[in-house]
Amino acid sequence: MKTTLALIIFLFLFQFSFAQNGEIINKEAIHFNVKINNDSIDFIVVDTVFTAKKPIFLFCQGSMPMPLFVKPKDEPMWIIGGGVTNFDIKEIKKHYHLVVISMPKTPVIVEEKNLNESYCYIPNPDKPKEFDVEYELSDYLENYQKRANAVLHYLRKQKWVDNSKLIVAGHSQGSKVASAIAANNKKVTKLGLFGANPFGRIDQMIRGYRKEAEAKKITWQEADEKINEKYEMLREANNKDSLKANPYLLAWKSFSKPQINDWLKIEIPTYLAYGTNDIASDLCDIVPLFYIQNSKNNLTLKRYPNLEHNFYEVNEDGRANYDKEHWIEVMNEFVKWTL
What is the dihedral of CA 258, 230, 280, 151, to 10 degrees? Predict the structure, then answer.
């Protein structure tokens, strides 16, 4: 009798605690919020009930201030979730609690009128190219790392979390965030990198201009001018006075640092997946050379032929075929690898 009563009290307290700290959104995910200093950090667990104790799978989304949910005027709300809807969520949930952190200074739920054509949050619908200034001031690598660690610290204390494993993965810009987390958080047990650029951000633009010149789409003089413009932009991004006048440069400064430096510090198993038609990831082909030269054997490299940055097949004209997506295959192979 005492045992039964204790169990009832435990379940009641657990449900009460859950109700105070989590809110179900759209019958798809549970919304949480943690605060550090003056920052309020929103994140979701892609589930509606915690019936099993499982490890965390933190997915770090790519760039731009996309909300986690979109609320159309006359249609049901739907989830973006940092891109996780492209995955086989049921497969991931068999083994992990899937977690996505909201972009900084970006509402979790945004009305469709406050989104531009790229589904980015814009405070003023009449100015589709202008992001929230607070977002631009928060859009830098060190901030994403700090926010993620605050969320992971909170999750470690939850009864429904198995702390024996911690998977951190990221796509595109999110791969930079995931790398920074893994390089500085000893709790991470495996790292997944998708569509990553080993050498930052600006270098792919420079390589792009070079390819255009080689293909005679632009002249070498035009390529030279464009490349020099990028050099100058990076100089501006590393100038304190320029950063004050142009907050958007902060992201260019932060995310243009080479990732390979962090990767070589990381000792845990690391999974690197990319499409061969992704200019951002072209230089992933030479990453194993660095691991070999540094006597490191913790890298698993997965190259996907004829796929682009978001793992769509590429037509003969070089454009993505949006009817042929391979994210489910790509992510399921990674999930299997983590097991």
Answer: 50
2-200+257-338 placed in CATH 3.30.1240.10:
no
CB atoms within 10 A of CB 194: 31
Distances (CA, A) of 36 to 90, 110, 252: 32, 23, 25
Phi-psi region of 206 (alpha: psi -120 to 50; beta: other; left: phi over 0): alpha
Residue 301: count other Cβ atoms within 10 Å of its Cβ: 15
* Residue 197 DSSP one-character state: -
Q: Apex CA 306: angle with CA 304 and CA 312, to 5°?
A: 85
Confidence of residue 248 (pLDDT cuts 50, 70, 90): confident
Q: Which residues have a Cβ under 8 Å from the Cβ of 75 and sit 6 or more positions away?
A: none
DSSP bridge pairs for 36: 39
The pLDDT score that the predictor gives to residue 86 is 96
